[in-house]
Automatic annotation (TrEMBL):
Keyword Transport in record: no
Keywords: Signal
Gene3D superfamilies from the UniProt entry: 1.25.40.390
InterPro entries, sorted: TPR-like_helical_dom_sf
Protein name per Swiss-Prot or TrEMBL: RagB/SusD family nutrient uptake outer membrane protein
Region (Disordered): 405-444
Iron is among the record's keywords: no
Signal peptide: 1-23
Length: 444
């Protein structure tokens, strides 16, 4: 009875457009111009719901676009909290047992990703209402992208995730959650080879996301994670990551766009509220990975500035409230290829892909390393170490830092030379209070 009362109350708040406070509700429909009864019967209403997916995922401090980059960067000691009164961020900075079960980043990342998934499933479950092929593939692609982004985010921070939306939902290993997200992307990737989203659909959703290239890039990203998710490398999946990375354009931007009306949450809390900054001039890189001096790598100056002896405000995609944020970066695709070639002991190919990132002086976002070509040992450990370093410098504040640290076998919490302060996040208190089958929290 207690669970049902809490869920009914949360639903009322959600439908009123207030701050969401519940993790998973099977009745939830995103409040929007579409009425609840019409959402599943009208193509236009489904398009409106698709537009709402992006808003939920990107707008506000509760959004995954705030929580994942902040959580990832804090987890690898890349950020510093400027005001210790911001207890949520300070807990993440300290990590380990300091992260409480009601930490708002832990809670809201979980809540908003699961709600995004519910809304994406609503679209995917009702594609038959769209008679036009272009409308249908647009709906399917957009919903699949945000389903994958939401579950792909949770996979990187939590060991287990509920895959169904119901009372007392069972939890599944994160590998299963990732597998389902990839399956949706694979299905729509096949559709997009013959059918493009309609002009009508593209006019109904926010501009900025290039659907076809985003699907390819997300497949590359999540194949890359999947290839090592069991702890043993799977070369067949790694080859899929290489192929998808090659297919994602380096010359077309795909980004979340912001304005004075719909603001960038990272920019708001960096520029306006001044909550955090980079921990040091080398983005927190440790154990000999930092560029020396930092100024020799232009990416440091691209991502941060220096306003005092120990003060490093963020720039680039967190510069201000209207800064756009990329869904993927060109360098990410090349580093995915380099990593998988290295794991397969294809060292010349790994070096070629790695050098694309090391030697480029700019890209469509203005990111350039301007470094000499790789000259280290042609061994798997040496190449993977440099690939990890390049990911930290190239993809700063991308939300993938914690997953990267684990996948590359960097020193974990309480190990000599530790480079991360958690392995996985604890499950939010709101989930534990409402779901009796919530697993025990993972070890720090």
């Amino acid at each position: 009875m207690k669970n049902q009362r809490i869920k009914r109350t949360a639903l009322m708040l959600l439908l009123a457009g207030l701050f969401p406070v519940v993790s998973c509700n099977k009745e939830y429909i995103n409040p929007s111009a579409a009425s609840v009864p019409s959402v599943t019967t009208s193509p236009d209403a489904l398009m409106t719901l698709c537009a709402g997916l992006q808003r939920r995922f990107t707008i506000g401090r509760q959004s995954p676009l705030y929580c994942a980059p902040i959580g990832g960067a804090y987890s690898v000691y890349a950020l510093y909290t400027l005001n210790i009164g911001n207890t949520t961020e300070k807990e993440l900075e300290t990590g380990k047992g300091a992260i409480t079960l009601n930490n708002s980043v832990v809670t809201q990342m979980w809540t908003q990703c699961l709600l995004t998934r519910v809304e994406a499933e609503t679209v995917l479950d009702n594609l038959n209402v769209a008679a036009d092929a272009g409308d249908k593939v647009g709906l399917k692609a957009y919903a699949s992208i945000f389903y994958a982004l939401s579950m792909g985010t949770l996979v990187q921070f939590y060991e287990q995730i509920p895959l169904v939306t119901e009372d007392n939902a069972a939890f599944s290993p994160r590998a299963e959650a990732l597998k389902k997200a990839i399956a949706l992307l694979e299905a729509v990737d096949a559709d997009l080879t013959t059918t493009a989203p309609s002009t009508k659909f593209l006019g109904k959703v926010p501009p900025g996301i290039d659907v076809k290239n985003t699907v390819k890039a997300l497949l590359a990203r999540y194949y890359n994670i999947q290839s090592m998710i069991t702890g043993t490398y799977d070369p067949a999946i790694g080859n899929k990551a290489i192929a998808s990375a090659a297919a994602a354009s380096r010359l077309i931007k795909s980004e979340f766009r912001f304005s004075t009306a719909t603001t960038n949450p990272l920019g708001e809390w960096n520029f306006t509220v001044n909550v955090f900054g980079a921990i040091d001039s080398t983005l927190g890189l440790r154990n000999g990975l930092a560029p020396v001096p930092a100024a020799t790598d232009p990416r440091v100056g691209f991502y941060i500035s220096r306003t005092g002896p120990t003060t490093y405000p963020l720039k680039a995609f967190a510069l201000n409230t209207t800064a756009n944020y990329p869904v993927y970066l060109p360098g990410e695709m090349d580093l995915i290829a380099a990593e998988n070639y290295a794991r397969q002991n294809m060292f010349p190919q790994a070096k070629t892909a790695l050098d694309i990132v090391r030697t480029k002086t700019t890209d469509i976002y203005g990111i350039g390393a301007a470094q000499p070509a790789y000259s280290g040992a042609m061994t798997q450990p040496a190449l993977l170490t440099d690939i990890y370093k390049q990911r930290r410098l190239e993809l700063f504040l991308c939300g993938q830092e914690l997953e990267d640290s684990r996948r590359f076998g960097r020193p974990g919490p309480n190990q000599p030379g530790e480079e991360r302060n958690r392995n996985f996040y604890p499950y939010p208190l709101i989930e534990r209070d409402n779901n009796p089958v919530t697993p025990p929290d993972p070890a720090i």
